[in-house]
Amino acid sequence: xxxxxxxxxxxxxxxxxxxxxxxxxxxxxxxxxxxxxxxxxxxxxxxxxxxxxxxxxxxxxxxxxxxxxxxxxxxxxxxxxxxxxxxxxxxxxxxxxxxxxxxxxxxxxxxxxxxxxxxxxxxxxxxxxxxxxxxxxxxxxxxxxxxxxxxxxxxxxxxxxxxxxxxxxxxxxxxxxxxxxxxxxxxxxxxxxxxxxxxxxxxxxxxxxxxxxxxxxxxxxxxxxxxxxxxxxxxxx
Length: 237
Ligand code: PGA
What we know:
237 residues; 8 strands; binds 2-phosphoglycolic acid; globular; single chain; 8-stranded parallel β-sheet; 35% helix; TIM Barrel; alpha/beta
């Protein structure tokens, strides 16, 4: 059963997040969906949501601390208030726009691993690396595992080529298959694909060998579309 995840990024308010989660819950409850569904809202929208058992709410980011003086950040204490036990680490927007280094990311990973969090760990190459061919792509991707315990039991990976994120350009099925199988050869963990996944292509993508689900941004922000994405994959193995 594919794992289906929605990354809200900097979208939705507290009010619209609540409405979204209520609608999604209703759908999941009434259609007895067995997919593992994850939603990463903004941290200002966290609440003590009632969720059905297949739905988990996660954090898009948090600092590697319980609390303290880290202006603009939230830590474990703020996540625990809402019983959040899932976190996205290494997303390309944090690596490239917010300039998180591999060292910062590895520290964050270690901290939340120690807390037993489910970690969705993102990797992926920028366009200039893609243009250098498969060998370079894999070299780049495996460097994103420096300092990361790949044997952690509560780890999900997400391969998200940077050039495919939010651009409408999806990697070809052949590329996804090649890269996913190369990653899987070394790391035996669930591996999602992300980068312009949408209602129309999610089923095909989730059927590629070694793809265990999808991490979706833009196309998941309307709850009706996200529900359709789950519908389109619910019967897959
Ligand atoms: P996208 O984003 O679906 O808008 O390409 C994916 C992601 O960044 O997780």
